[in-house]
Write a structure and sequence with these properties.
Shape: elongated
Number of helices: 3
Number of strands: 52
Radius of gyration: 38 Å
Oligomer: single chain
CATH topology of the largest domain: Jelly Rolls
């Protein structure tokens, strides 16, 4: 019975004095047909004159010529290179079969054939029996590897690291194995050798260089943003995806972490996993669904971790010294969180725990989110920095630094209805550092102070304060605010590109509103009646109605309607997102702020004498023209 023996490809290290320099590539298109290689030609040498260049339908990549290797033939190419990292790529139509007998694997740095099943098999000194059939990918158990059909072209790419004495093999761009222990004692790259002991085979598009072939430049099956070839060049191995969950190779997070190597990816199916879990590799990434580890979750010294999902920890969350971690999802910890010295942790969606302890030089960063803990302890040189978020802790013990930073551009938002009289804050509280109820400021001296026996917000000269509002689907919104007026000229560069309404008090004590591209001085009310002037340094009540559906607004001063159906300052204002107060001269104050949508503020007047409160009419219809005691006016648009 004839045993079908596979074609064998080998990379051999022998002492050589002549050969091709790298890089070297050959697609055999420039040779005369039927060129043979009994004498060395362009580095190639064959054992028989049956190995020749042919014009064949098999030639891949748009070419027309390839080398045929009939039964009992061999071709090699001699290369001179002392480089420690070498890439080899070739295309072939292989014979599928059993392992060739008597292969000189003791001389080889890499040796491979294609099995009867159509999968590449590699010589691996670390595997019992010496040969390993690659029916899957080392990158990910979910990555499908297809068998090679007999008579089909296949592209094989090989990475060799002579310093580490290991190799990696790609088939048609997929990394199947890495860390393949050299089967022999080769110390440098000298020969590429193909032996065929059975039916015709073909070889084409050979490449050898110290850089990876272009076919692998954008291949990123592990989806970490770096091609596997580039990872091999940079780190000597590509990141492996280690899957955790029902039916996955690992049943617990601890099992996956115990097997993980540097830069591996832990893909966790959503669920709860038993036991403690400890990570000691230098760099680890978690992806997948929200998970809870029922025990402790520990990251050792100098570990860098990235976790993309919501994480729950049933025990302690522990970080060693000089570690770093970024949690993109919310984190909840049933027990304590502790950071070693020099460790920096960012909780993008906040952290809830029993106690949190920050070692010397450690940092907890909360960009725009909340920290909730029973006790917060910060060691010498440590820092907890909350940006645009909030902290809820029963006790705070620190020798380090606690900072709470908030600006009107980045702060958390308020919801409607919103009311503020500043009475709940301590005197001297900075709105810039408050991080609470949507407040922010451009100046730390924008503080809560006492004015006339009541707590108010002070706006220093050149500063602004704001409250960011999450108005949801509401489009008809009332704003009511008391302002200690400072009289002056129009702002030099008002933010007209996004505001629904801009207004200020001019030097004559009248409200001036920016509408439809121009400033309008409100020295008369909506019925052309004179209005009283406001004295500098006196309190004034300003009420505004915004209709974001038709982009019109109404303006009241001391309850009196001054303007109605005013076009918005900017047509791009489609939602109520912030109340902003800017002060360009002297100190100004605001108090008694109300932002609501369900009803109009109390205390608005009925100036048109129709028995209907002007605020009521504005709230229902956006104007005071519709409701009259004598007649009903029908308006058609």
């Amino acid at each position: 019975m004839h045993r079908k023996i596979a074609i064998l490809a080998m990379l051999i290290g022998l002492s050589a004095s002549v050969g091709r320099a790298l890089p070297f590539s050959d697609n055999f298109e420039g040779y005369p047909l039927n060129t043979i290689f009994l004498t060395m030609t362009n580095g190639w040498q064959a054992t028989t004159n049956t190995v020749k260049v042919q014009n064949t339908q098999y030639a891949p990549g748009g070419g027309s010529q390839a080398v045929i290797l009939p039964e009992a033939s061999q071709i090699s190419n001699q290369v001179l290179s002392s480089a420690q990292v070498i890439w080899t790529e070739f295309q072939m139509v292989p014979n599928l079969g059993i392992a060739p007998e008597g292969a000189a694997t003791n001389l080889a740095s890499f040796c491979q054939y294609f099995s009867l099943s159509g999968f590449v098999a590699v010589a691996n000194a670390a595997v019992p029996g010496g040969w390993e059939e690659c029916t899957n990918s080392v990158l990910d158990p979910n990555l499908t590897v297809s068998a090679i059909a007999s008579g089909s072209w296949v592209r094989v790419s090989i990475y060799e690291n002579f310093s580490a004495s290991n190799a990696a093999v790609f088939v048609d761009g997929k990394l199947l194995r890495q860390g393949i222990a050299f089967p022999g004692s080769a110390a440098q790259y000298n020969y590429f050798l193909v032996q065929n002991r059975d039916y015709d085979a073909y070889l084409d598009n050979f490449y050898a260089a110290t850089t990876y072939p272009s076919s692998l430049a954008s291949v990123d099956f592990n989806s970490n943003g770096v091609s596997e070839a580039e990872e091999l060049m940079l780190y000597g191995r590509a990141a492996v995806i280690r899957r955790v969950g029902p039916g996955a190779p690992y049943a617990t997070i601890q099992e996956a972490l115990a097997a993980a190597e540097n830069r591996d990816i832990i893909a966790v199916a959503a669920g709860t996993y038993a036991g403690n879990a400890t990570c000691t590799v230098a760099n680890i990434t978690f992806i997948g669904g929200a998970f809870t580890n029922s025990g402790d979750l520990v990251f050792g010294n100098n570990v860098t971790a990235t976790l993309a999902q919501t994480v729950g920890v049933g025990g302690d969350l522990v970080f060693g010294n000089n570690a770093s971690a970024t949690f993109s999802g919310a984190v909840s910890c049933s027990d304590d969180v502790s950071l070693g010295s020099g460790t920096v942790i960012s909780f993008a969606q906040g952290i809830t725990c029993d106690q949190i302890a920050v070692g010397a030089g450690g940092q907890v960063l909360l960009p725009g989110t909340a920290l909730t803990a029973n006790n917060l302890t910060i060691g010498s040189g440590g820092q907890v920095a909350v940006t645009s978020g909030s902290v809820n802790a029963d006790s705070l013990l620190l020798t380090g630094t606690f900072t709470l930073t908030d600006t009107w551009q980045t702060q958390a938002t308020s919801t409607l209805p919103f009311a503020e009289d500043f009475e709940i804050y301590s005197l001297g509280t900075s709105l810039q550092a408050l991080g609470f109820r949507g407040w922010g400021a451009t100046d730390p001296n924008a503080v809560v102070t006492n004015q006339g026996g009541s707590k108010v917000a002070l706006i220093p000269e050149g500063a602004s304060i704001s409250n960011r509002i999450a108005s949801g689907s509401q489009k008809r919104i009332w704003t009511d605010i008391r302002i200690l007026a400072r009289l002056g000229d129009a702002p030099s560069s008002p933010p007209t590109n996004s505001a629904s309404l801009l207004l200020y008090f001019n030097s004559n004590g009248y409200l001036v509103v920016h509408s439809g591209g121009v400033w309008d001085t409100c020295d008369e009310n909506a019925w052309n009646e004179p209005v009283s002037q406001i004295s500098s340094g006196s309190w004034a009540r300003v009420t505004i109605f915004n209709n974001f559906t038709n982009q019109q607004c109404a303006l009241f001063l001391e309850g009196e309607l001054l303007r109605q159906q005013l076009p918005f300052t900017s047509p791009s204002a489609t939602d109520y997102t912030a109340l902003l107060a800017q002060n360009s001269s002297d100190q100004a104050y605001v108090d008694d702020i109300s932002i609501a949508y369900a009803t109009f503020p109390t205390g608005l007047l009925n100036k048109d004498g129709d028995n209907y409160n002007d605020g009521y009419e504005i709230h229902l219809h956006g104007n005071t023209y519709v409701l009259k005691p004598e007649i009903t006016i029908f308006r058609f648009r």
